[in-house]
Amino acid sequence: MAAIKFERVSKVYGKIPAVKDADFEIRDKEFMVLVGPSGCGKSTLLRMIAGLEEISSGSLFIDDKLVNGLPPKDRDIAIVFQNYALYPHMTAFDNLAFGLKIRGLSKKEIKIKVDEAARILEIESLLDRKPKAMSGGQRQRVAIGRAIVRNPKVFLFDEPLSNLDAKLRGQMRIEIARLHQKLRTTIVYVTHDQVEAMTLGDRIAVMNKGEILQIDTPNNLYAHPKNLFVAGFIGMPPMNFVEGRIGKDQEGLYFQDHSKTLLARTPKRPELEPYLDRELTMGIRPEHIHPYPAKGVVHYAAFQAHIQFVERLGHESFAFSTLQDQQIVARLTPEETVEPLSEMALYFEIEKMHFFDKGTGEAVTGD
Amino acid sequence: MKPSKIILFILLTGAALSFLYPFYWMILASLTPESQIGELRVAPKELTFSNYALMFSKIPIWRSLLNSTIVASASTLGVLIFGSMTGYALAKLRFKGRDLLFFVIIFTMTLPFQISLIPNYILMVKFGWVDTMAALIVPALNNAFAILMFRQTFKSIPDDLIDAARVDGCGEMRIIYQILWPNIIPTIITVAIITFMSSWNDVLWPLIVIRNEHLMTMPQLVTLFAVGGRAEAQLGVKLASAVLLALPIIIAYSIFQKYFIQSMASTGLKS
User: Fold this and answer.
1) CB-CB contact of A157 with A126 (8 Å)
2) According to the CATH classification, is domain A240-365 in 2.40.50.140?
3) pLDDT digits (tens, 9 = 90+) for B208-265
4) Domain extent listing, chain A
5) How far is the C-alpha of A332 from the C-alpha of A315, rounded, in Å?
6) How far is A151 from chain B (nearest CA, A)?
7) For chain B, is the Cβ count within 10 Å smaller at the N or the C terminus?
8) Is the confidence metric ipTM above 0.90 for this complex?
9) Between chains, do A85 and B174 touch, taking CB under 8 Å as contact?
10) In this complex, how many residue pairs, one in chain A and one in chain B, have their CB atoms less than 8 Å apart?
11) Per CATH, which fold does A4-233 belong to?
């Protein structure tokens, strides 16, 4: 049992706030991912859980126990760092054993625990090697081994895969997910890579400028972003944004961009009513834009696009055009063929449009 | 071999000889009867140990060798322990005034030792340490150079390594000596060699705080012996003491030659 609770936790460096009023709970056995751009405060938040960073104000609880002043070693946590942080002068075995030695375990107990961790991570053959003689992936495994060998209540991962190449990153991602299934321990995982965030997290906390903007499951974050930042941050390629205005005529409410190229009738969106004659930002994901009306979709807004270029990836391709000086990306299936430098209509699924208040950036509605 | 290379080697050999010859001459002269030193060229006519015998009879040279060894070893050990602690704090701990403190420490490096000589002496008198080994050892237990070296080296070590050690349960001391020290051996050797050498060669400070002949360090004793009149203007005896003075450093050099060169190159200092 290891839930982590933040109660209005802030961190200030001098006068610069790094984390502002974090107030949320990470449930027992949950895989929580903290995601956000560089400098958003996600690592600081993680380091506060570890006790490596003092808390400027607020309270932090691990298992209902206030840990604000508790040193890292007494928090029963383990951390895996981005650059592995293995002790260079020790073999893999000694790296794993070091924390246990300090805790006064007998040599026999240490051997049993290290062997067990090595077996789980399949690093038995590396135990005699020093970090210098290992590849990046092997080092990362040993670093994870050092974390699991102590059987801590909470695992903390600080961008553990960012130093690995793309292929290895994919493999390690699966292994970390598997490890979580096996160990059933609370994991807090910091990354700036949204693929890692989406694939690993039970829930994801999206952070920007020291604030937690939304905490939700990966699917909900993707489908129901609460604000412009989350909408733009989650999803690759990112959501397309078009600025415009809500109007009304005899057919009802509609959204029209400033250049009057795109008109989206929104009869089923009563929540837009208060925004009549006001400016809004409309967002739509690339997969909800098509080169022709898709089957089963009734409401479309179309505009005549000039396709600038097309990125073909085999299983899908991306068509790039512009609307009102904003880049518009459409994700196309292999069947949806589009030629670069051609003129053609692009169809936006109105049901899938997101609307955001231009002033606050908050979402006006969901789907 | 190219002619240009041959010329280069001849020049280098000449330069090396010009450095080596005075040492050679010193050793030779110390083994030559006093009357023949004046005529000495490359090889002596006669060898004798009488200069050494005379020196041993006049001054407690073995005792001073022991004193020097104790003082230089203790100060070196102190500098390694305390210098790395200070360097660690200045590199890795966050506290108010940290950088200012560091600049003050660096500033002291620019001041000549002579400036602090009198205040230090007064301090030694007040502590009652004059004519004790404490006066030689305690003020030398830490120095700005070592602090600078350790700070810069620790700065290059990733914080994550230290954080990993903290999470593993290490206190600050264990982090310094068990995690960081094994990874900064070249710096430790550099600081150790330079500290040991400067302590070994120091004459001025011992001259001021030590008067008891049995507590004197070797350079102090040899200096007093050579210029203080007790060698009775005999060059051979003076040179015999100079040879003994140089011997430990020459032996140390031959053992640690590789590190000596590394340390000189890495610090850019000429000793």
Assistant:
1) no
2) yes
3) 999 999 999 999 998 888 887 776 778 888 889 889 888 888 888 888 877 767 666 6
4) 4-233, 240-365
5) 9
6) 12
7) N
8) no
9) no
10) 53
11) Rossmann fold (3.40.50)
